[in-house]
Design goal:
four-stranded parallel beta sheet, binds pyridoxal-5'-phosphate, 35% helix, 15 helices, 19 strands, Rossmann fold
Length: 465
């Protein structure tokens, strides 16, 4: 690491909002994809202060609404969001003293929802699997709350020209300057369409030979609409933030030259590959953008330069893109043949937790509640004594007994059935017919397998071969 020259240091700022924008651009290492010969540049938008590209539009839309008088001092921002605009707006609202309500569909990661609450926003979670015309659709709910709330302003990012304008004025000018004007291809997915439309419009004006390429998830309607101007019915997909079921007015089809379609599996596996091969820890739509960029770049000459954006940070997807159990349960990783699977193939890699007989009962209660590993094995000198007695712990708490000085050796019962990871998986399903959970032994360590765990993990088995 080198010392940053003083002329390039950021001056002391009085407000977090000064940290929005001015994000780094990093070259993808040659050889990341052996079939790609050209230069691939990644704009790291997750370096924005709330962790995504949406900080730019959140700040710009709020500033424009203040100017036009739509948002007044003491007012409330109400927005529907797949999470990142909600986070950006929650940060802007906290920094500028507005109240905020964010309406978010329940398919979005729990980390994103928790973070928005962390900024003090009111969060309304709506069902993801309802049609756009349903009154419970998150856009409809946000519109209704805004209409019914005194002093509320609904940015409506999907149809707000200031969304697109933020990228035209800020994201695009940074990219153009960082590239010294040499940019031959720009690739990005669209959710609201603000990113690709704002950047695309700027590039068409300042680098007219630059090709602008859109990316759409399988199941979204945008790629088909771009090709045919025909609106089809959408399907479901898991990648967050991109794709749509209607045509947003923030999306300008006229600046897009080509469209690619990418599936969830390729998106997630590419994000994971990027993290492991380069250290760049980005979200699912970053993997989606990069998967499309590399597919496109394979046909380009060595002297071409392609730019894409990495919209948000990987930490927002620890329970999904970066969770092997989630990927295996949803068949994004290779399934395992039902003919040869063992109990170990059904076990989750979530933290295993064990109690020592000398731990306090208070500690046992905390582990049972927080780690969600149940039953909790109790071990002494590498020997399994039994499992933590939750029934007794409840009784102790109910009667106000001091559990801080009581030891787990006074609060365990015999272990239920103990199975070995190497046994055939059918042994676990048979045992769980009569028990809520079993312990699974792997060498000297134990983990739990509950009926609930089984319900998720049986989807990993492939019965076709
Ligand atoms: C993670 C993520 N990636 C990409 C996008 C797409 O950006 P845009 O809405 O500007 O099309 C979004 C938008 O919500 C997003 O949250």
């Amino acid at each position: 690491m080198e010392v940053t020259p003083i002329s390039k240091l950021q001056p002391i700022s009085s407000n977090i909002l000064d940290a929005v924008g001015n994000t780094p651009m990093v070259r993808l290492p040659a050889g990341f994809d052996p079939e790609v010969k050209c230069e691939v540049l990644l704009k790291l938008e997750f370096m924005n202060p709330s962790g995504s590209i949406k900080d730019r539009i959140a700040l710009h839309m709020v500033r424009q609404a203040e100017k036009s008088g739509k948002l007044k001092k003491g007012g409330r921002i109400v927005e529907c969001s797949s999470g990142n605009t909600g986070a950006g707006l929650a940060m802007v609202a906290a920094a500028l003293g507005y109240d905020i309500t964010v309406v978010i569909p329940d398919k979005m990661s729990s980390e994103k929802i928790a973070a928005i609450r962390g900024w003090g926003a009111d969060v309304v979670v709506t069902p993801a699997n309802v049609g756009i015309e349903d009154r419970m659709h998150y856009t409809k709910v946000a519109g209704r709350i805004a209409a019914e709330t005194e002093g509320a302003w609904w940015p409506d990012q999907y149809h707000n020209p200031d969304n697109t304008d933020a990228h035209y004025q800020f994201t695009a000018t940074e990219i153009f300057a960082q590239c010294d004007g040499k940019i031959d291809h720009f690739v990005a997915g669209a959710g609201t369409g603000g990113t690709i439309s704002g950047i695309g419009r700027y590039l068409k004006e300042h680098a007219p030979n630059c090709k602008v390429v859109g990316v759409d998830p399988v199941g979204s309607v945008l790629a088909h609409y771009w090709k045919t101007r025909e609106l089809i019915e959408g399907g479901s997909y898991a990648v967050e933030g991109v794709g749509e079921e209607e045509v947003p007015r923030a999306w300008d089809v006229s600046v897009i030259d080509d469209y690619l379609v990418v599936n969830d599996q390729d998106s997630f596996l590419m994000a994971r590959k990027l993290a492991r091969a380069t250290g760049i820890f980005a979200g699912g739509s970053s993997g989606f953008n990069l998967a499309a960029t590399l597919r496109y770049a394979r046909n380009l000459p060595a002297d071409a330069r392609v730019v894409t954006v990495l919209p948000d940070y990987g930490k927002a997807y620890l329970s999904k893109v970066y969770n092997d159990d989630y990927l295996r349960d949803n068949n994004y990783l290779d399934g395992v043949s039902a003919n040869s699977a063992t109990i170990g193939d059904l076990c989750s890699i979530k933290n295993t937790a064990t109690l020592s007989a000398n731990d306090t009962v208070t500690w046992g209660i905390r582990q049972a509640g927080e780690r969600q590993v149940r039953p909790l094995p109790v071990i002494e000198n590498d020997i399994l004594l039994g499992i933590f007695d939750e029934g007794k712990a409840i009784q102790l708490l109910t009667t106000g007994t001091d559990t801080t000085s009581m030891l787990v050796r006074e609060c365990y019962i015999d272990a239920p059935i103990v199975l070995d990871v190497a046994q055939p998986w059918q042994d676990a399903t048979a045992a769980l017919n009569n028990h809520d959970s079993v312990l699974v032994k792997d060498g000297n360590s134990y983990s739990s397998l509950s009926r609930n765990d089984l319900l998720r993990s049986l989807t990993r088995l492939n019965h076709k071969n």
